[in-house]
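COURSE: Structural Biology Practicum
ASSIGNMENT: Worksheet 4, Part C
STUDENT ID: 0417
INSTRUCTIONS: Below are two proteins. For each, the amino acid sequence is given first, followed by its structure token string. Answer the questions at the end about the second protein only.

PROTEIN I
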Amino acid sequence: MADLYIKRGHNIQIAGTPVKEVVKAKTPSSVAILPTDFRGVKPKLLVKEGDTVKIGSPLFHCKSNPSITWPSPGGGTVKSIQYGPRRVIEKIEIELSDSEESESYPSFRFNEISGLNRVEILDALQKGNLFPFIRQRPFNKVADPNTTPRDIFISGWNTAPLSVDLDLALRRRLSPFQAGINALQKLTDGDVHLSYNENSVSDTLLEVEHVKKHSLQGPHPAGNVGIQIHHVAPLGLTDLVWTVNAQDVVRIGNFLLTGKLDTTLFATVGGPSVTSPTHVKTRMGVQMSTLTEERLSEGNHRIISGDVLTGKTTDQNGFLGFYHSTVSVLPEGGDREFMGMLRPGSSKTRYSLTNAFLGFAKDKFNFTTLNNGSERYMVPINAWEDVLPMDILPNALYRAILAQDIEEMEQLGIMECDEEDFALCSFACPSKIDVGGTIRDGLDLMEKEG
């Protein structure tokens, strides 16, 4: 029986679920890192166009904290540096060489890692440019190595639509995963928490040691690390915790064991527009065309880096986000169906969490990008509360954020929140309110005022 059963939430029945097998992706010609993926970071370039870089070479650092540097996801030539409005760096693209080279840093034997102290682990990760793989709550931004987290949380279960099955991604990777856990243990005075689905069959998740394990069951967003923190060890107003993606724990472990950055990434390509949705073995920062080529049906599609609830729109020439391991593709919506909610018949073109239309149930739904309406007055029918498994009043918190009432926001639990945990509220909202976006506005305000 699961240690924790999440009751509230919803698993979106979207068509194009990736099959549970892994295929090898095509070799890309270039990879990229997108500095806009990192909240609150003002990058200062360490390279220029035409420079030769290796896998793991530092590309830029944060102006406010130069000790945090970002690694190159490939070896070759800096092909382009793209700037946006106000000279904001949006993309650093690396054209891969035929014989990629990697930066080499000091490595350790497996048994040596447990004997390292916190300063030595921090020094290794910072010199190897790996600290961006660690994020902190509140605010869900890159962690500050000058702070000590209360705990570190790792989610070993993805529940977001079309996301990677970590049982597949972590298969036969126990040794580097354990090495990563042993290192992370040195970075906190508290515990390293690992959560996973009670039906997991992964040897990596089930056999790893030196962590506090929590088995889970329930609908999305049960797999979100923010939901797990809320139920396992909630954040106080002054608490700070770090989070690491499960695949990045392997990356950290591999780095310490080999002295080189492992760019391997298990990703998914799925959605109603994908003809052969599947898991793929690829690499960080890969171009979308490498993953979607020959996999899309005919028509006009929207390609999303990440899942359909929290991802970012891109195109075939775009690149996978730094923290993303899902490519979601949906057909662009056409005209809205007249009085569609009242028309009986098949639910092929309708989906509802509240049975608000006349239709018949369907296992998988061919979603499009159509909103079926625009933002309107709030309708207090508990639509948000029914899909948010947190002891937080989302309606009251939303109003406090709009009023910019800092004290009220604190009392209502804003510091425990992140927009990804409220993404289902936006999806379920009958008023078409971007609840997650408002939560982010509130967090930005709290950080600015703090």
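PROTEIN II
(use this one for the questions)
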Amino acid sequence: MIWEQATIRLSSYRRGFHLITSEIKQAMPAIDQIEVGLLHLFIQHTSASLSINENADPDVPVDLEMAFNKIAPENFPYIHTMEGPDDMPAHVKTAMLGASLTIPINSGRLLLGTWQGIYLCEHRNQASGRNIIATVQGSENQ
């Protein structure tokens, strides 16, 4: 049985949806050793989130950002405004998308669908880097 955990420090991304699948795989080489298991990802922030979505068409992340900005606009009369006009909408978006993902592993591969990728959803205009706690567990390849 393998258990491995690491903090993945992502560099600063601009506001939007960013594919990070390759960064996650590179940071967690234990995935290659797993016959059957799970990868759990948890982002340690309240103004960014994680999502699985289409990874092929570059219009998808653009449209996602546009849609979420319509759902949680900056000009809504929020009460929590001390950290700027993009902060409370960021919390709303994070509440909708979530802070964690669990992805099955089989034969050393993440079992994402053909068109699926892992996204960092950056909801702040001027965010710093982000921390993701990645935990791999499973039985070893024989």
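ANSWER KEY EXCERPT:
Q1: The mean pLDDT is 96.
Q2: Strands lie at 2-10, 16-19, 34-43, 48-54, 100-106, 109-110, 116-122, 130-140.
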